[in-house]
Amino acid sequence: MDYAAESSGGSSALPLLVVVAFAAFVYFLMIRPQQKRRREVESMQSTMGIGDEVVTVGGLYGIVTEVDADTVMLEIAPGVTAKYARAAIGKVNRKAATEDEPPADEESAPPSDTD
């Protein structure tokens, strides 16, 4: 009996299709979202300015007092500053109010009648 003649004549494309589908699955569910998150963090770190309230990746809260190319000076307590790498900033909690816009905590209330 010839078993070679009974087997399929060519190689099946199914194993190759499974490998390609798995690679696409890994890319869209793991790699692509991570790249997007990394771009957002890099953007946040590059737009950080003086007066912003930030949180380091270690969980330390501070206010930016000085920004250099690779480092950031944070005021972590009144009169206490510390130097951190720009990459160590994990989140900007509150952007500093610019001169053009009013502070976020003061809402413009209509004038009251006190006649």
Number of helices: 2
Going across the biggest sheet, name each strand in turn: 4-3-2-1-5
Strand-pairing-aware structural class: alpha+beta
Spans of at least 5 consecutive residues whose pLDDT stays below 50 are none
The termini sit apart by 112 Å
CA-atom Rg in angstroms: 28 Å
Instruction: Tell me which oligomeric state these chains represent.
Output: single chain
What are the secondary-structure elements, in order, as H or E?
Answer: HHEEEEE
Overall spatial form: rod-shaped
Number of strands: 5
Biggest sheet record: 5 strands, antiparallel
Helix content: 25-40%
Average pLDDT score: 81
Beta-strand percentage range: 25-35%
Describe this structure in words.
Helix content is 33%, strand content 26%. The protein has 2 helices and 5 strands. It has helices spanning 3-6, 14-47; strands spanning 53-56, 61-67, 71-77, 80-85, 89-94. It has a 5-stranded antiparallel β-sheet, covered by helices on one side. The radius of gyration is 28 Å and the shape is rod-shaped. It starts with a helix and ends in a 21-residue tail after the last strand. The relative contact order is 0.11. The mean pLDDT is 81.
Any key phrases for this structure?
2 helices; 115 residues; alpha+beta; 26% strand; five-stranded antiparallel beta sheet; 33% helix; single chain; 5 strands
List the helices and strands and how they pair.
Blueprint: H1 3-6, H2 14-47, E1 53-56, E2 61-67, E3 71-77, E4 80-85, E5 89-94
Antiparallel strand pairs: 1-2, 1-5, 2-3, 3-4
Short précis:
The chain has 115 residues and is of the alpha+beta class. The protein has two helices and five strands. The model has no long low-confidence stretch (mean pLDDT 81).
